[in-house]
Amino acid sequence: MKPWIRALSIFLTAAVPLAQATVHDHLFKGSFDIPADAPASSNDAARFLTQATFGPTSADINYLMAQGVGEWIDEQLAKPTTLAEPTVEAVFNARTNGGQGVNQTQRLNRLYWQAVYAPDQLRQRMAYALSQIFVVSDQSSAINQDVVPMTHYWDLLAGDAFGYYGILLSDVTYNPTMGKYLNAFHNTRSFCSGGNCTSPDENYAREVMQLFSIGLILLNMDHSPVLNGGQTIPTYDQTVITHTAKVFTGFTYSDAPTNPPNFNFGGVTFAGQYNPMACWGTELFPASSNNMKHDITGDDGTTNTPKTVLGGATIPANQTCAQDVADEIAIIASHQNVAPFISRQLIQRFVSSNPSPAYIQRVASVFDTPGNDLGDVIKAILTDSEARNPPALPTPGVGACPSGGNCDSYGKLREPVLRLTAMWRAFNAQAPAPDAYGEIAMIGSGGFQGALGQNFLESPTVFNFYLPDYQLPGVFADNNLYSPEFQITNASSTYTTANLYDSFIAKAYQGMTNPPTNRPLIDLSSLTANVGNPSAMVATINANMLYGTMSPSMSARLTTMLTSLASANASAQEQAWSLIYVTMLSPEYATQR
Q1: Are 344 and 467 in contact (CB under 8 A)?
Q2: CA neighbours within 13 Å on the CB side: how many for 132?
Q3: pTM for the whole thing?
Q4: Cβ(406)–Cβ(391) under 8 Å?
């Protein structure tokens, strides 16, 4: 093993658990690297905040205008993590002790509250992006009852959001929720009994490489494939998976020596279920043939040969679980693919589905610079010229890009969840008061996964809601353009999304008779103040939801709609929520540029 890889592995060994991770002080580091330029206008500020938060608010727009982009990012990087787990655990215990049921609704209510109201908006958005790369999901029966541990997993992603990638990968690997989701938890070494032999489960070994780090083919820094004789080069093969699977064996709860396998959930701490896993063997008990669950054998099945893993790197034989895992994480984290593979997906989540190769390479170079962390990476993503200066759209009926650039491929379909949170934040949604158990209801009757095709930590598979390389058949595929979010967009979801949005707009506004108490209530006053003046109402929508980009044709259609509603004696509230609702369903609101 190369000395610098060994040094990184030693660092990672010391980096577990999460609470011990060291992160840059971004408030002071690099304060002169990027000028604190103020956005050119409030609309430009709103556009930036659409990329960097769960939606602009008027207060955030004003603050960004005063502070400038660079300083705003540095302040966000320095903000402490808003934690979900302590609140959800308290609600869990209160409901359980009160004889009430508990399910993932308690977790989701808290995460949506944080998305709308937490001050560390960039960190929470980064956690959301990372949750779509390092996927765990309550759709799996292995963890769908683990309400508090799954909440802690979100906190892990948020806490590591601006730290070093290697530490994040290590924390994810040791997390019991991930362990149970991808079968590393209670994964054991090879053994034979009565002529029947077993091998370690390969699920985590496969996904940690394919999805969490390097992908399937060798990449250049701009994410283009490395070719050999015109053919792509695989990053690993089945033999590597088999040997890597041996590394991720022996994991169990960290308090396994002192607690029985079935925990008493009523009021008892959940720490054992979400603290970093330990290894059954020398880390927990004296090693013996009866309790050694970690596989210490090498390629040939003997104990005196090293394991040969990714890129031909070797892990020494006869090491402890912690040593093996630290070496493996260091080998993966140092692979040339990590920077372009992760950078491109983060750009897709924040800015554009089709970033140019040059954009990916600029960000990947920051990712790959020694001493830089994910905080530096997200700063590079958001301040890049391709993020801050979108190409002008073509004139309707002309078709050509004015600058000759990639205006037709720039931007992304805004995720359904982000359309909802942005609407809440734009209209100062007021959350219900906590109930008798301390829970703040945010999601009404739920059903987001079925209606929107996505929800926090509810992906149908480990491959996320949509693939980064998905191409919608037709114009996108014909032009070799990627359109991830369109993978969950179809005729059925168009209707279910519209129905769900209706329940949070037409049926959830301040001042209505008998308002619901299980969802936020939006404030219509900025619109009702101008009832009778359709142009002013449409201008408010343009500013609050479309950030000054509304097309003349859309403006005309909305104005006509308001005139018709007024002629039908619709109330001021109905005119206001109708305007929001129709805008929510419009292609112009659904498109992020």
Answers
A1: no
A2: 23
A3: 0.92
A4: yes
